[in-house]
Amino acid sequence: MKLAGIDIGNDSIKVVLDGVREPLVIQNIVAPGYERHILQEEDSPLKALDVVVHSPRLSKNSQRYFVGLLAMENEDSMELEETDNKAVSDQSLIVALTALAYAGIVSQSVTNSGYGNIEEVEYTLGTGLPVRSYSYYNKMFEDRLVGEHEVTFLTTPTLRNRKVKVSIRRAVISIEGAAALFHMATHDNLQVRDEELHQGCIGICEIGALTTDFPVINKMSIDNQFSTGEQIGMATYLDSIIRDVEDQYGYRFPSRAKLVQRIKKNDFTIRRIGEGQSSMKQVVDLYFSRAANKIVDLIKKRWKKHPDIQCFYVIGGGAAALRSYIIEAAGPIKLRFVDESELLNVNGYLKLAKNKVNHNQYT
Ligand SMILES: Nc1ncnc2c1ncn2[C@@H]1O[C@H](COP(=O)(O)OP(=O)(O)OP(=O)(O)O)[C@@H](O)[C@H]1O
Ligand SMILES: [Mg+2]
């Protein structure tokens, strides 16, 4: 049985296995799969996740999908929208199961299932939901994950025709942002690392792709009254950038993921036919400062309502993207940032699942 944390993000799915340092990150993008013409095989399996997914929880079964990078270039690819809910989304489940099957193979956690050439990996998972969907959806989310699913890799380099049964025995559902704080406050062996975080009243602003969570955590317990969330995230602003760049320069990014790839590399050049070049830096600055102002307003509002909050952490992928803009917008208000902030939740989920499993052994 493998213990794993999985953050089923609207932008990307992150997986960490107990005892494995490197996290696995797969973009939450799928496209309908088909027989593809391969001129040269990709140099890594993650560049060509081509799978058939079977799960009793999917509305359409045994369909073929391109997942992650392979779907990113595809015109029929789907990224999630504001109205999607990760607790019930088929797309998110497809990417999550693909990620878990892949992680099982590369960590050599798969065993022979006893049925032909089918391999099996068994998991206890830690995962989470946004503050506002937690109370209503956590049971439904758990029921969707727990059970037996199957992923078959087709043209994926080095994994051709591997069939993996993904058996999820148990899923421990936590809350986005709160799990991140648990990770920051504890060591890998779950002992307290930071007394201030452990004993204090801490505000969190976790900026995701579609939601921004504002849990308030007092002595490591989530505050039911003051924790909340907003249905905004980076996606709205990224979509606006895509639209404006298209209007101004006639260049269309096929997906948000493609745009983010470029922003992360600090590459703002827009190339046009005939060697023409422009920069989209201004457009990015405009929308990112807007996003930052909005976030800072929300933080101020929360902090005013609950002045006992000692410090505010700004985390999630959005914090990495907006850091300098938020610092500027915040002026004298001190906010805290941490590195690799999009991986805090998934590490927290793993620790919380470990905590629960350990606890159960003693009771
Ligand atoms: N360094 C960066 N520069 C620009 N954008 C980034 C950077 N890092 C992450 N992002 C973007 O920030 C957004 C939030 O990323 P994150 O990984 O936290 O989202 P998620 O967890 O998948 O979404 P959600 O929490 O809504 O389910 C994404 O749109 C992502 O592409
Ligand atoms: Mg997230």
From TrEMBL:
Cross-referenced Pfam families:
ALP_N, MreB-like_C
Please give the organism.
Answer: Paenibacillus baimaensis
Q: What is this protein called?
A: ParM/StbA family protein
- Domain Actin-like protein N-terminal per the UniProt entry, residue ranges: 5-177
InterPro entries, per this entry? ALP_N (IPR040607), ATPase_NBD (IPR043129), MreB-like_C (IPR049067)
Residues forming the Actin homologue MreB-like C-terminal domain are: 206-324
Species classification: Bacteria, Bacillati, Bacillota, Bacilli, Bacillales
What SUPFAM superfamilies has UniProt attached to this entry?
Answer: Actin-like ATPase domain
